[in-house]
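Why does residue order matter? Because the sequence determines the fold. Keep that principle in mind as you read this record.
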Amino acid sequence: MNPTPHRLAAAGLAALGATSAVPIPLAQLDFAGLLDVFGIDDGDTPHAVLVVVAVAGFLTVGVLALAYAGVVLTLIGSPSARPVLIAAAVAGLVTAMPLWLPAGIVLGAASLLLPRNPSDEAPARLH
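Structure:
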């Protein structure tokens, strides 16, 4: 199936949103002491907080994978692309609330470019 201009725009916007969020789980895992990407020092942070941040980091990686799956589904014209992008936008708010807002808004905007009913989508025309 050839992607329509709306699908291409939605996929590009979703890819931008997902890619802009890549540093979030890296920072979470760095703060938890599992990676050393940014050199974040946890200081005297209690162990329980570091465990919560590590779990949130792994969950955020999963949300990013979901967002990229939404990009692929958008490009191939799958009817499930819209709900997957919306799920990624909302799930990111759970795993990384303040930092995820820009990415979540962009993913939500990408989902709005897709039709609610795939049968409403007009085929792309070549001029």
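The first helix runs from residue 5 to 20.
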